[in-house]
Specification:
The protein is of the alpha/beta class. It has one domain: Rossmann fold (3-Layer(aba) Sandwich). The chain is built from eight helices and eight strands; from the N terminus they run ααβαβαβαβαβααβββ. Strands 3-2-1-4-5-8-6-7 form an eight-stranded mixed β-sheet. The longest helix has 15 residues. Keywords: Methyltransferase, S-adenosyl-L-methionine, Transferase, Ubiquinone, Ubiquinone biosynthesis. It is an enzyme of class 2 (transferase). Belongs to the methyltransferase superfamily. UbiG/COQ3 family.
């Protein structure tokens, strides 16, 4: 699975848009809007300052940079070449140290660095790979005992289809058409089951709801569309 848990069609989507990754008004506006909410969730569970952090599926580095600004020693990995180059250039322009970007899968990193990370983030990524459970197992391998892993993805139900695909891609044009495939969305029950099977203890679920009037996301108890999960590797 180390080299096969990749969907070339999914990679191509993000390769084509790489140059616009850091434009907050581009197709990546939702990621920019989600980032403070995701970081607020992480902050509520752990202070990453001085810790070794891996950002799995880092893309152009939006969350990766925020983790580094919090004081984390961050390794950002992704299988897309162009977004990684964008991430490296942007970090250089920002004068950010403490970030290492590498083109590899979670499974490959797990083979290389088992038990080396205090914190792992895997945001808006599992719905883009053929086997999410393989990524989950790799993350468990990468964590130190007591380490924490954070995930975000999209629920699979009629409301999520309406909001995340019809609304976001076809009505409000927040995302390019075809960004998501409904059958790849993951129910919270499925995500928590995969976490437990991988040896991770689920600590919390939180929803991320979008207000079209204020055009902002916030944390909520509603996990029906976008949601986050916090987990921990047992000692």
């Amino acid at each position: 699975m180390a080299t096969t848990n990749v969907d070339p069609a999914e990679l191509a989507k993000f390769e084509a848009l790489a140059s616009r990754w850091w434009d907050p008004d581009s197709e990546f506006k939702p990621l920019h809007d989600l980032n403070p909410v995701r970081m607020r969730f992480i902050d509520s569970h752990i202070n990453v300052a001085g810790l070794k952090v891996a950002d799995i599926g880092c893309g152009g580095g939006i969350l990766t940079e925020t983790l580094a600004k919090r004081g984390g020693q961050v390794t950002g990995i992704d299988m897309t070449d162009a977004p990684l180059k964008v991430a490296q250039l942007h970090a250089l322009e920002q004068g950010l140290e403490g970030i290492e970007y590498r083109q590899m899968t979670a499974e490959q990193l797990a083979e290389e660095a088992p038990g080396q990370f205090d914190v792992i983030t895997c945001m808006e990524m599992l719905e883009h790979v053929p086997d999410p459970s393989s990524v989950m197992s790799a993350i468990r391998t990468l964590l130190k005992p007591g380490g924490k892993a954070f995930f975000s993805t999209i629920n699979r139900n009629p409301k999520a289809f309406l909001f995340a695909i019809v609304g976001a891609e076809y009505v409000m044009n927040l995302l390019p058409k075809g960004t998501h495939e409904y059958q790849k969305f993951i129910r919270p029950s499925e995500l928590s089951s995969a976490a437990r099977e991988a040896g991770l203890t689920v600590r919390e679920f939180k929803g991320m709801t979008y207000n079209p009037l204020t055009k902002a996301f916030r944390l909520s108890s509603d996990v029906s569309v976008n949601y986050l999960m916090a987990t921990e590797k047992a000692d």
